[in-house]
Design brief:
This protein has helices at 6-9, 18-25, 30-34, 47-53, 72-92, 99-105, 130-133, 140-143, 167-190, 214-226, 294-309, 312-333, 355-367, 390-405, and strands at residues 2-3, 65-69, 117-121, 153-154, 195-200, 230-234, 260-263, 270-274, 338-344, 347-352, 370-371, 373-375, 379-382. It has two domains: 2-16 and 311-406, Aspartate Aminotransferase, domain 1 (Alpha-Beta Complex), CATH 3.90.1150.10; 36-308, Aspartate Aminotransferase, domain 2 (3-Layer(aba) Sandwich). The longest helix is centred in the middle third of the chain and has 24 residues, at 167-190. The protein is globular, with a radius of gyration of 22 Å. α4 (47-53) runs parallel beside α11 (294-309), α9 runs parallel beside α10 and α12 runs parallel beside α14 (390-405). It has 14 helices and 13 strands. The chain has 407 residues and is an alpha/beta fold. Helix content is 40%, strand content 14%. The two termini are 21 Å apart. The strands form three sheets. The protein has a seven-stranded mixed beta sheet, sandwiched between helices. It has a four-stranded antiparallel beta sheet with strand order 9-10-13-12. Bound molecules: the ligand Cc1ncc(COP(=O)(O)O)c(CNc2csc(C(=O)O)c2)c1O. The ligand Cc1ncc(COP(=O)(O)O)c(CNc2csc(C(=O)O)c2)c1O binds next to α5.
Length: 407
């Protein structure tokens, strides 16, 4: 199969890459695979140094610290907790709780359990655990029957395509959404549930590969700063190089770095980078048994080596041009079926006329040997590995054309 979905965007350098297979064959690595440590209490002696060649070597601008986790949901979940701890420490002026805060915390009451909130966006997806689900607004089936926190959800810009033709309308739409963000922050402050943090994806993936301008994100970052809220960029799906830069939010050109960046999928390990001030004041406040997995970190270090040695981020840019230009051509050839071709690097998507036709097209592509994935109500998202070259893209486009001709 030609895989253009790669296990929901989580295979970085293709299947069975020799460099990763070699890791498995090295007898010196066996202990890391067999003896999984409780990293929060008993990290292997060389673990911090090993992070330097791996995760810390790709730390986003302005972030020097990293907390590893297992998956995207637990990365966001624990990043939210670190934000709440930071916010309350800032409000108190120190990190020593009063006896009342300690007593009320264990019975789920304020002030020990404060009424704080995280602002998210309609169309955003941040995971399926309880805190993450309160910031996820994609499909009802993901949220039905699960209690939710009373946290604000702002509108995400609904851009009109082609972007060049609707610049004025789209700028107006983004301005409307940013005004709504500030209104919600003020409203939740008045409700006694101050917004401790804002979470956003650089491209709303599950929600349908929704885009906003880089200027929108720079302005949003400034709003978070203005209101004393942490700014968390969720790079679980966009991170790892598929937009042509290692982190999608690098495209924004932020003067003031994000406070936190969560990751998982292509990085093979979950976790979040964070600014010094978000370091919890005491051990075990952000904690679980494993806190990540040194074996996965080993694979990641090797993946990063391959990305550098094979210059894969430049490859992504070249392949991305072939993909997007090919999608433009197909949308022109099948205007009754396709619209809104869009992408950054090989992180591309296209809309199909309706959900049923989108699902049929994915099935038809699969029967012709191509693995695709849907997102949103009627989009197809393309998530190839970083080793996906121009000839793979052309092969995909030819098969996709045959599937479309067959609809
Ligand atoms: C931007 C973003 N943030 C967080 C998550 C959650 O990561 P996991 O918990 O699934 O590892 C994801 C996971 N993506 C995802 C794709 S399908 C899916 C699902 O639960 O149906 C989840 C994500 O795309």
């Amino acid at each position: 199969m030609l895989d253009v979905y790669t296990q929901i965007a989580s295979i970085p350098i293709g299947y069975n890459h020799p460099a990763l297979m070699k890791i498995m064959m090295n007898p010196h690595n066996l202990s890391s695979f067999v003896n999984r440590p409780a990293l929060g209490m008993l990290p292997p002696r060389m673990f911090p140094e090993k992070l330097l060649d791996g995760l810390i070597s790709v730390a986003p601008k302005g972030l020097k610290r990293v907390q590893t986790m297992a998956c995207g949901s637990c990365s966001n979940e624990n990043a939210y907790k670190a934000i709440f701890i930071w916010y309350r420490t800032k409000q108190r002026g120190h990190s020593n709780p009063t006896p009342e805060e300690s007593a009320t915390s264990v019975i789920n009451q304020a002030p020990g359990c404060p009424d704080l909130s995280i602002l998210s966006f309609m169309g955003g997806f941040h995971g399926r655990t309880l805190g993450c689900l309160s910031t996820t607004h994609t499909k009802a089936i993901q949220k039905l029957d699960v209690p939710s926190f009373d946290w604000p959800a702002a509108p995400f810009p609904k851009l009109r395509y082609p972007l060049a033709q609707y610049e004025r309308e789209n700028a107006q739409e983004e301005k409307r959404c940013l005004e709504e963000v500030e209104d919600l922050i003020v409203k939740w402050e008045k409700k006694g549930k101050p917004v401790a943090g804002i979470v956003i994806e650089p491209i709303q993936a599950e929600g349908g590969d929704n885009y906003a301008s880089f200027d929108f994100f720079r302005k949003l970052r400034a709003i978070a700063k203005k209101h004393g809220s942490a700014f968390l960029v969720d790079e679980v799906q966009t991170g790892g190089g598929s937009t042509g830069l290692f982190w999608a939010h690098q495209h924004w050109g932020l003067d003031d770095p994000a406070d936190m960046v969560t990751f998982s999928k292509k990085l093979l390990i979950g976790g979040y980078f964070y600014k010094d001030e978000f370091e919890p004041d005491k051990p075990m406040r952000i904690f679980n048994t494993w806190m990540g997995d040194p074996a996965k970190n080993m694979f990641l270090t090797e993946v990063l080596k391959v990305i550098r040695e094979e210059n894969l981020l430049e490859q992504v840019k070249r392949t991305g041009h072939v993909m997007l230009n090919g999608l433009y051509e197909l949308q022109a050839r099948y205007p009754h079926l396709l619209s809104k071709a869009r992408g950054l690097g090989t992180f591309c998507a296209i809309d199909v006329k309706d959900e049923d036709t989108r699902n049929k097209l994915i099935l038809k592509a699969r029967n012709k040997g191509v693995v695709l994935g849907g997102c949103g109500n009627q989009s197809i998202r393309f998530r190839p590995a970083l080793v996906f070259k121009e000839h793979h893209a052309q092969l995909f486009l030819n098969i996709f054309n045959d599937a479309l001709a067959d609809m």
